[in-house]
Amino acid sequence: MTLRELDLLQTYADQLVSGEEVVLRVVIGDLCPRPPVLQMLSGFFAGYPNTRLHLEYEAVGGPLERLAEGDADLVFHRAEPSDPRFEQIKLSTTAMVPVVAPGFLPFASTKRIMPEQMRPFTQCVIRDTARRSSSENFFLIDGAHRCTVPDQMMKKELILHRLAWGHLPAWLIEDEIRDGRLISIAGPNFPGREENLAAIRHRRHAHGPVTEALWLHLEGWRMTSRVGRGGKRLRARRGR
To answer: Which residues, 6 or more positions from 2, have their beta carbon under 8 angstroms from its beta carbon?
Structure first.
């Protein structure tokens, strides 16, 4: 055994004695913008070099299922304020905007579009990574053909290439809405939804000192007042 290996074993033993976590398991959900979260985690874990960050991605019901089953210490996802099992720190909000690419629809893209008009067109949805899928309906049109993708970026690419339509988080499409590559069809019949993005942990699970330090750090950290470039609210451009 080398001196390096002995040092690592001693560090590991010291961590076990102090109760400091050897690994901290974090899940980023599909609605959270990854760059600010990853930048924050990078800065935080630079101060805890002996705790390894185990980072994973989950979608739709996957993040909270992992948390509930004890497979994650902390998740970044849409808030679930009605679930008493979880404590949450609100970090930001984002709108889910229904969008199409120019030329995707054979009729005018206006805010008066009816769900029945969209039924013949492929709707793109995020694939749920939960083992037990939620019964909640996320903007689905009954009877419409659907294609599933693993994440929001892939969904955006399909919509941009006029292969489908769907709802995307405002922070992801700010530039495309502004320059006309995507058109919002939000209106009375497709209102979209405002989502609260939060850091979430399980109330009843034991939390080590590094997890507690990260939680305290998150209480003073926010993505922006609204997720998007410069924190500016997205103004959706509509077709005429």
So the answer is: none
For 116, phi then psi, to 5°, come to -60, -30
Calculate the CA dihedral of residues 10, 12, 17, 19 and round it to 10 degrees: 150
Domains of the chain: residue spans and CATH: 3-93+197-228 (3.40.190.10), 94-194 (3.40.190.290)
Alpha carbons 208 and 100: distance in angstroms, whole number:
46
pLDDT in tens, the chain (240 residues): 665 545 545 554 555 545 789 999 999 999 999 999 999 999 999 999 999 999 999 999 999 999 999 999 999 999 988 889 999 999 999 999 999 999 999 999 888 999 999 999 999 999 999 998 766 677 899 999 999 999 999 999 999 999 999 999 999 999 999 999 999 999 999 998 999 999 999 999 999 999 999 999 999 998 864 454 433 333 333 333
User: If we measure between CA atoms, which residue out of 54, 55, 53, 33 comes closest to residue 226?
Assistant: 33
The DSSP 8-state label assigned to residue 74 in this structure reads: E
d(CA 72, CA 80): 16
Taking the model in full, what pTM does it have?
Answer: 0.84
Instruction: Find all residues with CB under 8 Å of 191, minimum gap 6, and list them.
Output: none
